[in-house]
Design brief:
The strands form two sheets. The chain has a six-stranded mixed beta sheet with strand order 6-7-8-3-9-10, sandwiched between helices. Strands 2-1-4-5 form a four-stranded antiparallel beta sheet, with helices on one face. The protein has a domain of about 160 residues: 3-Layer(aba) Sandwich (Rossmann fold), CATH 3.40.50. The chain starts with 5 loop residues before the first strand and ends in a 9-residue tail after the last helix. Strand 1 and strand 2 form a beta hairpin. Helix 3 packs parallel to helix 5 and helix 4 crosses helix 5. The chain has about 240 residues and is of the alpha/beta class. About 45% of the residues are buried.
Length: about 240
């Protein structure tokens, strides 16, 4: 079995006096879709933030491709988040003043890509996620499913090695959620991108190759998920999101 692309060992993290992680350990391999499940307050989002280098653990180690994320200076962490990591949140967190195409182009612009090239590439990714023709819409003018697809396009436009998805369907109805997950899995498989998927929904977790469960800040169970049942839909081009 290949070495993990991303590995956490013994993570401890508290928010003030409230412990969130109590020694959690997890591996993510290149190209793997891993679901992290657990009840609200179990530490799922904190685990994601530590793995993505957004916050530093109080104790424990996080290693990515041979680098200790928990020891890296902020400048290097910011660079990794621009190049190797993509992040999708439950509510998308698109910039409300920017159009869809400019939201997706933003990571490229921050990396030094010219505006013309960035917008062209952003348009290609909007097309891949089935929202071509929505380039001029601002987040307030989109449906929830459309906005989340734009968020996915923004997370993947730089060609990251890992996408961190924190409850990406939590704010969507079941149809839009299924379409968003199909689009995410299809694109991740196509590009060989690893995905760390935080979810409390068993149907969403079934899209993953493997599932780990968190309880009170500890990994308590691990097993193979139901990705075989969704492989057929994931291999097809994503359908349009209903408004």
């Amino acid at each position: 079995m290949s070495n993990p692309l991303l590995a956490a060992r013994g993570l401890v993290k508290a928010h003030g006096s409230t412990p969130a992680l109590r020694g959690a350990s997890v591996d993510l391999r290149a190209g793997e879709i891993l679901a992290v499940t657990g009840a609200s307050g179990s530490g799922k989002s904190t685990l994601l933030h530590c793995l993505a280098g957004i916050v530093r653990p109080d104790e424990g180690t996080v290693e990515y491709a041979g680098e200790r994320l928990d020891r890296l200076p902020e400048k290097r962490l910011s660079e990794l988040r621009r190049t190797d990591f993509g992040v999708v949140f439950q509510f998308g967190q698109l910039i409300p003043e920017l159009t869809a195409v400019d939201n997706v182009a933003l990571p490229l612009l921050l990396a030094g890509t010219s505006r013309t090239a960035a917008r062209e590439r952003a348009g290609e990714w909007l097309e891949r996620f089935g929202v071509r023709g929505q380039e001029a819409l601002r987040p307030g003018e989109m449906s929830g499913g459309q906005a989340q697809r734009v968020s996915l396009a923004r997370a993947l436009v730089t060609g990251p090695k890992v996408v961190f998805a924190d409850e990406p369907t939590g704010a969507l109805d079941s149809l839009a959620g299924e379409q968003v997950m199909t689009a995410l899995v299809h694109t991740a498989r196509e590009s060989g991108t690893a995905v760390l998927l935080i979810t409390h929904d068993a149907q969403v977790a079934a899209y993953a190759d493997r599932e780990v469960s968190l309880r009170d800040g500890l990994v308590t169970a691990e097993g193979t998920s139901g990705s075989a049942d969704t492989a057929g839909s994931a291999s097809e081009a994503p359908a349009e999101v209903s408004r």
